[in-house]
TrEMBL record, chain A:
Keywords: Membrane, Protein transport, Transport. It is found in: Endomembrane system. This is Vacuolar protein sorting-associated protein 45-like protein. GO terms for cellular component: bounding membrane of organelle; Golgi apparatus; SNARE complex. InterPro entries: Sec-1-like_dom1 (IPR043154), Sec-1-like_dom3a (IPR043127), Sec1-like (IPR001619), Sec1-like_dom2 (IPR027482), Sec1-like_sf (IPR036045). The keyword Membrane applies. Its main location: membrane. GO terms for biological process: intracellular protein transport; regulation of vesicle fusion; vesicle-mediated transport.
From TrEMBL, chain B:
It comes from Morus notabilis. The keyword tRNA-binding does not apply. This is t-SNARE coiled-coil homology domain-containing protein. GO terms for biological process: intracellular protein transport; vesicle docking; vesicle fusion. It holds the Pfam family SNARE.
Length: 568, 245
């Protein structure tokens, strides 16, 4: 909640003190930041009658001096160049500049120099350099996400760029929350360590004045993790509403684009899934597929009742009531069509890809034991004609991650079968994954088979039986959060940067996963926060993953790694 | 800052309560010579002190937008008067209440006229040729449309016939019969009027509903609207290039 309200607050402050008609100019990143927390109609109420991207503003020549320009940009060099040109020949009456992160002194000088006509009224830093998709979940939408998988020597420039972006994003989050954290990172990950160190340098040395907030009793915690520590979660198929939509169709900045699935009426081509704006979604986003179906049916029934009473218009009073209720009625109608469409399309996909069958095996690979049974199940599915290539790949990957060290012969057999069955399979991809995220690379106890306590816990769970075999998996994050709330996060595995150390249990924790988060994990965080354990968690990542994105990053990293070794 | 612009009548935006109108109402603070309020400094060329930059005048359609707001304001005042007149008409009184009826009719006509005028002006806003600020115009149009729609909801057809006087038959039946005939003809006329105004209402609502944004849908998303603008601008550019080459 805190990040959504911080971002909204910033936008409000940008607009409120400027009277008259305004134009809001954004760049391709801040447009995402603003779009998830502010709606077009709210902008109109604040008299913002035009919204443009800074690239298009450069192209146009028409002067609109009756408008006051409000710029909200990331402080990148491209944006500064655009601004320079626009300030030199201003189109608007006044210029109010807001930046989403810390401006360098040189950049301020450049702007001041180019403002010859003195049209700039104010320059401020409003630290909303992240996309707050849900109350406790943010993302940075980094396009070249695969960079985190590559060792530094392969492409140091790109890796530096990636790390800078992550550090800036994390810094903005803490500036927005007005906190300075203790920083811990995952020991086995070089990139996590690097990001942790650079963040610490920024917060405690370079900009220590800016971050010098009122100290609370117990400092908040920033924990930097690597996606490779839990490669299982992004590979699994999902059955809870939000995660499932992202896995099967894809959610970007809380928008779902249905056009790839077929022809839809104009107003259902793209839909919005935002817990802030849609109360049905808010109460169902973490429910499983079966329950959603029932809840939608109930919603449709309620709607039909309302529709029936609307048909029954006899008197003028009825008409008046109808006109009064019409906006609500229309909104409900649109909302219901949206959910019904989504669930219908997802059911179709589940049916086509036989996902219930596949997912059963996936969950067993992720949760339970039995190598022999697992091998058999995977082999059968590989032989099954109806299973799609991507599902076969995921199954083999999940098997490989689990039984990496057991029975290498059978593992090899699976690789060969996969290669022969899937013509588009990039050979060696599974092995590449194992190199990235195999058991030797992982810190956390992914399968609960390292320490005694976890083994016992798994056995207990197995005996108790599971409520729903499709949602039995719990991401590693769950255990990590538990350790934090109990104050038992091991220093050996998650060391601290610098000589700060954690006194007591932290009350605010930001967990950043380098390589991306998943909606299954953000669900885990939201449910954890709902238990009011005294610790509040916020989850963030470089992107929000689904299996398609995760595999794409993997393929891209493999391609680059290969081409670089061939050069060397 | 050498000057500070004072905000004109503060927005009396009512916060949306659950179940109330989905779209909020806000008074625009555009300057209007017909209203009287505290003096404020308008943008004058002198404000950008040393620069040679001249602050141009807003384009003509801004005036149209202001006129619409003025009309909406006037309509609202009239509606308040109308409800008072209704209340007065419903109270028992001496005399035949014809005066009140006429007043009510006149007020209703005025209000409908104002709303229709505003609607026509709103259409004009989109009629002027394509240009860069068409997006600004469209957005202003949408906002004004919302204002008008809010007023329509207030101005439900109040021409309720409450003059269904008891038809009392007494000894002078013939005379009374003639009178009641005249009455029923008049009532028929009034009912016709009711039907007409309801139809007008329906028409106006239909026209306005196209302009108003549904909250929570993708049309209400800033990034969606930017995308569309970008495509339209690109298209426009392509067309221009075609013409010029």
């Amino acid at each position: 909640m805190v990040l959504v309200s911080a971002a909204r607050d910033y936008v409000n402050r940008m607009l409120q003190d400027i009277s008259g008609m305004k134009v809001l100019i954004l760049d391709s990143h801040t447009v995402s930041t603003v779009s998830v927390v502010y709606s077009q109609s709210e902008l109109l109420q604040k008299e913002v009658f035009l919204v443009e991207l800074i690239e298009s503003t450069s192209l146009s020549r028409e002067s609109m001096s009756h408008l006051k320009a409000v710029y909200f940009l990331q402080p990148t060099s491209e944006n500064i160049q655009h601004l320079r040109r626009q300030l030199a020949s201003p189109r608007f009456g006044e210029y109010h500049l807001f930046f989403s992160n810390i401006l360098k002194d040189t950049q301020i000088h450049i702007l001041a120099d180019s403002d010859e006509l003195e049209v700039v009224q104010q320059v401020q830093e409003f630290y909303a350099d992240f996309v707050a998709v849900d109350p406790y979940h943010f993302t940075l939408n980094i396009p070249s996400n695969h960079t985190y998988m590559l060792p530094a020597v392969v492409d140091p420039g790109n890796l530096q760029h990636f790390c800078d972006r992550v550090v800036d994003g994390i810094a903005a989050v803490f500036l927005a929350m007005k906190r300075r954290p203790i920083i811990r990172y995952q020991r086995t990950s070089d990139v996590a360590k690097r990001i942790a160190q650079e963040t610490s340098k920024l917060m405690y040395q370079q900009e220590s004045g800016l971050f010098d907030f009122r100290r609370t009793e117990i400092s908040p915690l920033l924990l930097v993790l690597d996606r490779s520590d839990d490669p299982v979660t992004p590979l699994l198929n999902q059955w809870t509403y939000q995660a499932m939509v992202h896995e099967l169709i894809g959610i970007q900045d809380n928008k779902v684009d249905l056009r790839s699935l077929g022809k839809f009426p104009k107003d259902q081509e793209e839909v919005v899934l935002s817990s802030e704006q849609d109360s049905f979604f808010k109460s169902n986003m973490y429910e499983n597929f079966g329950d959603i179906g029932m809840n939608i049916k109930r919603l449709v029934d309620e709607f039909q009742q309302a529709a029936k009473s609307n048909q029954n218009i006899q008197t003028i009073e009825d008409m008046a009531k109808f006109v009064d209720n019409y906006p609500e009625y229309r909104k409900m109608h649109g909302n219901i069509s949206k959910h019904v469409t989504l669930v219908t399309e997802m059911s179709k996909i589940v049916e086509e890809r036989k996902l219930m069958l596949v997912s059963q095996t996936e969950q067993e690979l992720a949760c339970n034991g039995g190598q022999v049974a697992a091998f058999e199940a995977v082999t059968n599915l590989l032989n099954n004609e109806n299973i799609s290539d991507i599902d076969r790949l995921r199954l083999v990957m999940l098997y490989a991650l689990r039984y990496e060290k057991e029975s290498p012969v059978q593992l090899m057999q699976l690789f060969n079968k996969l290669a022969s069955r899937s013509p588009k399979y990039k050979p060696g991809l599974v092995q590449f994954l194992l190199k990235q995220a195999g058991v030797d690379k992982r810190t956390g106890d992914l399968y609960g088979n390292r320490d005694f306590l976890n083994i016992a816990r798994n056995m207990a769970r197995g005996l108790k039986g599971v409520e729903n075999v499709y949602t039995q998996h719990q991401p590693l994050l769950f255990q990590t959060m538990e350790s934090i709330t109990k104050g038992r996060l091991r220093d050996v595995d998650y060391p601290c940067i610098g000589n700060h150390f954690q006194q007591g249990r932290p009350q605010e924790v930001v967990i950043f996963i380098v390589g991306g988060t998943t909606y299954e994990e953000s669900r885990c965080v939201a449910l954890q926060n709902a238990t009011n354990s005294g610790t509040r968690f916020v989850l963030g990542g470089s992107v929000v993953l689904n299996s398609k994105r995760f595999l794409k990053d993997l393929e891209e990293a493999q391609r680059i790694a290969r081409s670089s070794t061939s050069v060397v | 800052m050498p000057w500070k612009s004072v905000r004109a009548p503060t927005s009396s935006s009512t916060s949306t309560s659950s179940g109330g109108p989905v779209i909020e109402l806000a008074n625009t603070s555009l300057l209007n010579p017909n209203r009287s309020y505290a003096p404020l400094s308008t943008e004058d060329p002198g404000n950008s002190s040393k620069g040679a930059l001249t602050v141009g005048l807003p384009p003509a359609w801004v005036d149209v937008s202001e006129e619409i707001s003025a009309n909406v304001q006037r309509a609202r005042v009239k509606m308040a008067e109308l409800s008072k007149a209704h209340a007065k008409a419903l109270m028992p009184s001496f005399g035949d209440g014809k005066e009140d009826q006429r007043l009510i009719e006149a007020l209703t006509q005025e209000i409908t006229g104002l709303i229709r005028k505003s609607e026509k002006k709103l259409q004009r806003l989109s009629a002027t040729g394509p240009s860069e600020d068409s997006n600004v115009r469209k957005n202003v149009q949408g906002q004004d449309g919302v204002d008008i729609e809010m007023n329509l909801n207030g101005n439900k057809s109040r021409v309720e016939d409450d003059d269904l006087d008891d038809m009392v038959f007494n000894e002078h039946q013939l005379a009374k019969l003639k009178k009641s005939e005249a009455l029923s003809v008049e009532r028929e006329r009034e009912i016709q009027q009711v039907v007409e105004s309801v139809n007008e209402l329906a028409q106006i609502m239909k026209d306005l509903s196209v302009l108003v944004i549904d909250q929570g849908t993708v049309v209400d998303r800033i990034d969606y609207n930017i995308q569309n603008v970008a495509t339209t601008v690109e298209e426009g550019l392509k067309q221009l290039q075609k013409v010029l080459s």
